Amino acid sequence: MVEIKTPEQIAKMREAGLVVAAIHKATREAAVPGASTKDLDDVARKVIAEHGAKSNFLGYGGFPATICTSVNEVVVHGIPGEDVVLKDGDILSVDAGAIIDGWHGDAAYTCFVGSGHAPELLELSRVTEESMWAGIAAVKKGNRLADVSRAIESYIRRQPRPASGKYGIIEEYGGHGIGSEMHMEPHLLNYVDKRRLLGRNNPRLVPGFCLAIEPMVSLGTPRTEVLEDDWTVITTDGTWSSHWEHSVALTEQGPLVLTAPDGGKAKLAELGITTAPDPLG
Length: 281
Fold this sequence. Notes:
The chain is of the alpha+beta class.
């Protein structure tokens, strides 16, 4: 069953979301050529401690770090390590989370290490991020879960094809409910599967519904494989990928992007949507 949150619980999730936003800011600044992904994990640990929060990644299913650091062809769940040193021209996705008083925040971003990136890599990240915002814009009363999936997929499909020939919407991974746990029902596909349009797989969105919306897109295949560490997910054809994510709450006043510093106000205004008031002021 979907966990429906009270306004007070959403306020706690907003606190956790702002910790995640602080992790993003600090790790983005630290993602420079010569830094290891372990260095970024150390930065994230420090931010979490400074905010009196807890990590929801460390120890989750045995995961050994505070953030996921996915470089180039790694789609998600890359494990930070001293031996993974960032180089000029790399692209990096950082997935981070935090817990405040038992309530979770979760978000991811893609950034560019150094300079000299090919235009199709810049466009890949832009398309992935904008598809996330298209999905967030579909979080409204009366819509169903598949409307969010449709908005994400439709945005990606409308974009001009990259030089590699296509954008691959990753099939095996997607978004999810979030709240008193990091991963909860429902599972959110980043494309429409007609087999999931009925019943519990396609619930109606109501106030108190919270989702982590996270498209993952490659410059080639939508298919992935998991490396021997049982965590690192790569594209099967070696093409590079992008990952963007925000946690979003639907309230009586509209959506609130829990992990965006401004609650999503500026970006959603561009899409003609008014965000809910920030419960933290």
